[in-house]
């Protein structure tokens, strides 16, 4: 049985590992969790003894197969609870992360599988992130950042890179959500700001915003 802290570390290592070909440094883990490097070192020893991670000096931390599955199950619970909170309880997408952080530590596998069935087996959470299934399999979506899209091409918003409350609230104000159709009509050379058409209304957004919106072609 894993402690809350151990689960949080596994989930953090999992997120930091995405797209990485090398181990994760203790400093990176400490920065993400906002704790001291010495505390990370102590936890790494515990997780290593449980065979959930492998640690090599100067090469960092990697998840073992058992550790990877455990991390995916934590992520699965978190994202399923986010779907439940938005779809069934009427929470907005900027409110659910902190609540799901608490609910993800519920241990009952039966409850989570019933929740998955009740929600009709969703494949993504309210922010567009993929939900691992009960076997840990993840269905990836072919997506890119809006900042990588050519002008005059219509794309659909499928996720956010930044899931902070501030960013999600900004998107709500601009009426940008998952499923929104977006077309870049112009890019200003001076400041790289974007003029975009969102579901038939025109707005201007910064390059920072465009670099935090995931889209896919129609």
SSE topology:
Layout: H1 4-17, H2 26-33, H3 37-49, E1 53-56, E2 60-63, H4 65-87, H5 96-103, H6 109-118, E3 144-145, E4 154-160, H7 165-173, E5 181-187, E6 194-198, E7 201-205, H8 207-210, E8 213-217
Antiparallel strand pairs: 1-2, 3-8, 4-5, 4-8, 5-6, 6-7
| Major beta sheet, strand line-up | 3-8-4-5-6-7
What overall geometry do the principal axes of the alpha carbons give? Answer: globular
- Element order, helices and strands? HHHEEHHHEEHEEEHE
**Fraction of helical residues:** 40-55%
Number of strands: 8
Please give the radius of gyration in angstroms.
19 Å
* CATH homologous superfamily assignment of the largest domain: Ferrous iron transport protein A (FeoA)
CA-CA gap between termini: 44 Å
Class by alpha and beta content: alpha+beta
| Amount of beta strand | 15-25%
Family: Belongs to the DtxR/MntR family.
Pfam families: Fe_dep_repr_C, Fe_dep_repress, FeoA
GO cellular component, one term: cytoplasm
Keywords: Activator, Cytoplasm, DNA-binding, Manganese, Repressor, Transcription, Transcription regulation
């Amino acid at each position: 049985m894993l402690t809350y802290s151990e689960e949080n570390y596994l989930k953090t290592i999992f997120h930091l590992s995405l797209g990485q070909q090398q181990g994760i440094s203790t400093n990176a883990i400490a920065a993400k969790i906002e704790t001291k490097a010495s505390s990370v070192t102590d936890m790494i020893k515990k997780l290593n003894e449980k065979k959930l991670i492998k640690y090599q000096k100067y090469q960092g931390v990697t998840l073992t197969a058992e550790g990877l599955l455990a991390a995916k199950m934590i992520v699965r619970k978190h994202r399923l609870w986010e779907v439940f909170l938005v779809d069934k309880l009427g929470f907005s997408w900027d409110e659910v992360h902190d609540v799901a952080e608490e609910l993800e530590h519920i241990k009952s596998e039966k409850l989570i599988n019933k929740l998955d069935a009740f929600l009709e087996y969703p494949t993504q959470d309210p922010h567009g992130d993929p939900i691992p299934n009960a076997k840990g399999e993840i269905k990836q979506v072919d997506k890119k950042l809006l900042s990588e899209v050519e002008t005059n091409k219509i794309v659909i918003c499928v996720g956010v890179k930044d899931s902070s409350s501030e960013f999600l609230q900004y998107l709500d104000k601009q009426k940008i959500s998952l499923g929104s159709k977006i077309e870049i009509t112009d890019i200003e050379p001076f400041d790289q700001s974007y003029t975009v058409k969102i579901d038939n209304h025109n707005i201007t957004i910064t390059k920072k915003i465009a670099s935090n919106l995931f889209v896919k072609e129609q």
